[in-house]
Amino acid sequence: MSAPHQHAHRCFGVLAEYGSGSALLAAIEHGKREGFTKMEAYTPLPMHEVGHALGHENDLPKYVLGGGIVGGVVGFGLQYYAAVLHYPTNVGGRPLNSWPSFIPVTFEMTILFAALTAVLAMLALNGLPRPHHPVFSVPGFELASRDRFFLLVPSYDPRFEADRALAVLGATEPLAVNEVPHP
Amino acid sequence: MSQGPTTPRESEVIAPGHTLSTVTDKITKIVLSRATPRGWYLGFALAFLLVMVLLASITVLLVEGIGAWGVNVPVGWGFAIINFVWWIGIGHAGTLISAILLLFRQEWRTSINRFAEAMTLFAVACAGIFPLLHVGRPWLAYWLLPYPNTMSLFPQFRSPLLWDVFAVSTYATVSALFWYVGLIPDLATLRDRAKSKPWKILYGIGAMGWRGAARHWDRYETAYLLLAGLATPLVISVHTVVSFDFAVSVIPGWHATIFPPYFVAGAIYSGFAMVLTLAIPLRKIYGLQDFITLRHLQNMAKIVLATGMIVVYGYTMEAFFAWYSANPYEEAMLANRMTGPYAWAYWLLLACNALTPQFLWFKKVRTNVVALFVIALIVNVGMWLERFVIVVTSLSRDYLPSSWDTYSPTRWDWGLYVGTFGLFLALLFLFIRFLPMISIFEMRTLVPTGAAETAETEEHA
Q: What ipTM does the predicted assembly reach?
């Protein structure tokens, strides 16, 4: 629990470690009462109530809808352009714009664009790939991908002050509290 | 918590006594332990040998041309299309398990979805080889794609064969995305657990810096669910389009409205049989009975039975249509199937696909691992025969008797087919050795103590 105070003005934040999700949730509530608004939690499994408690917004679905619509328009547009505008060909007397035949490709392109958008937008909004992050340098953080739960009060929180954050998180019965050194 | 995991009862999806840490350690140990089982080397060597057979068969084909195969003028499709449909059908169970069962919140899917998805990817890779080679000049296969070119030509967008290009390539892309996205948190676990620097770096690159931030999990789960929602109609569309390759033509025995649902059911049927074929030895060899329990095997057996019955309904309707249509060509096709030169294949297919699954009505059989394995193998054979019957009998005798001919595969047909088994198994062996075959982070959500630890964790499925 002893943290190197000499670098307090340069630290990235303060990180506390918990043994269970319920302890983490209690700590989030405590931190909110103390006025922290930019806290971030790290958990080994997805927990909806943590996201709720931290008040996250998630507008990924809008991007995916947009991607799907663009995919559908591109898919149909491609076929319309090829069959009607660019090189009109009479195939078996069917109309040039024989749209029912164009549905399968339109559908596949809709799915393809929406799926690509879902993955790329998820990564981009999450700021990934980012191979290194300050929290990785905290000893014991590798357990965040096994069975431990972490709460970070970052230095960009308006109410952040290293000593105060250490005291507030220290009062939440954590397994450990550490300052996160700045990279 | 203090006593270790015990043997799971047949109703359980995970053995009691597991915690977040035991689940993590047990699955990562398979990947990170230095000792590779001797059986792995043996299996991989055999698979690698078959990959060599595949390469030899492809080389002979490229040197000699399509004449190296047994295809002739009426039977232009032969093994290439039979094997393409067979492999792509097998792939569909992986998507069904990972996407559709996720949407239905069937949490038992969790321990089998990862390797079922891997199976999908590898099966699609095997499937893709066949049509690419079957075009005759594979180095010009990019002509199938619409791109601006000096010939000023576009592919024929009104053709099901072109639809297939889009459906299968979209399917391969989305399956790979889905699989990779599912792997990201587990790659982070491997990065954090790996002892050696090179592996830490390699897994670290794959994990892209995943650190389990709550904000990230939110978007991650949304993306994962949306991918599942997109993959569900996609998988149905893919096999529907594959069936259009047949149904949109005017060949007797192909031109039937039952084809799309009948093909989709057949795909799921053969795919689940393949998942059983792979899961039963895997859980035994790697001691994963805690995670892949009898409940999983039973549930899969039930799906095999249900989809098998739909397939039997399809066979019945095919025969009924042929009779009820009063169309002489359709009637002749039916008689040819039942008594013609390929009648053995038709009756064998009925024995494999209509009779064998009936044993699955009995719980004794569904909980007997050896019996399940044998039934799954027979179903795999049966579904291959089904495609053989559909492709070969209809093409070999269509309308004019003067243009009839019989078809028999050459050794290079067999070489290519057996070779794709090698590719499939070699990829599977590599996957099992280097990546977690069970989704670790999703298994964590199943741990009862995990639920207690996380207060009222919403069911994540």
A: 0.87
